[in-house]
Amino acid sequence: MSRKTVILCLLSLIILVSLTTSVLAEVKGPIVDKVYFNVRMKEEIGLKDTAEGLTDIFFWGVSGPTIMGLDQATRDKLDIYAVPSGSWSLNFNPVPNAAPYIVKVEDKEFFNPFAIREVRFAMNYLIDRKYLVDEILGGAGGPMFTMATPGQPGTYKYNLVANRLGFTPEGNEKKAIEDITEALQEAAAL
Predict the structure, then answer these.
(1) Would you say 103 and 112 are in contact if contact means Cβ atoms under 8 Å apart?
(2) What does the domain layout of the chain look like in residue ranges?
(3) How many CA atoms lie within 13 A of 134 on its CB side?
(4) Can you give the pTM of this predicted structure?
(5) pLDDT per residue over 147-178, tens digit each?
(6) How far is it, in rounded angstroms, from Cα 119 to Cα 121?
(7) Which of 78, 31, 28 minimizes the C-alpha distance to 52?
């Protein structure tokens, strides 16, 4: 074994030992005897109590408009973390899901355009997800194209599919209308 190798091994060993002893020597506080939970019926009060130090943590999902509704001085005292806390979906009734797309309710017959698969799919292009996030969530959110929320393992792969299909946060109204028109014309020709 060369002299350089021996010196390198010794230095590595010294560094390793010094790192582990510093971790072991770390002084920790006592185990907590009591934990107090307070309940606030209004988010704004809970957030202000946390900002003033009356509560250590406010552990609840808060909407963007609620956070932005607080004065700047209160927001500056809070450590705010953005995490996915929910998702919304638009569900379309596909009944009867087969041509001629007529559903009978009691004694009346109705044509259901959402029974046409292509119409339902075109809604992916028609909907402006960014507008919905900006208007409903006050910009505190992000558009989603799949069932997988950000932060879940594997979400990236699903979003690649949405990207390949041409889904965008703003949508593509022109394509949606073309696809819907074509699907309705085919249904009318049945």
Answers:
(1) yes
(2) 34-81, 102-188
(3) 6
(4) 0.67
(5) 888 778 888 899 899 999 999 999 999 999 99
(6) 5
(7) 78
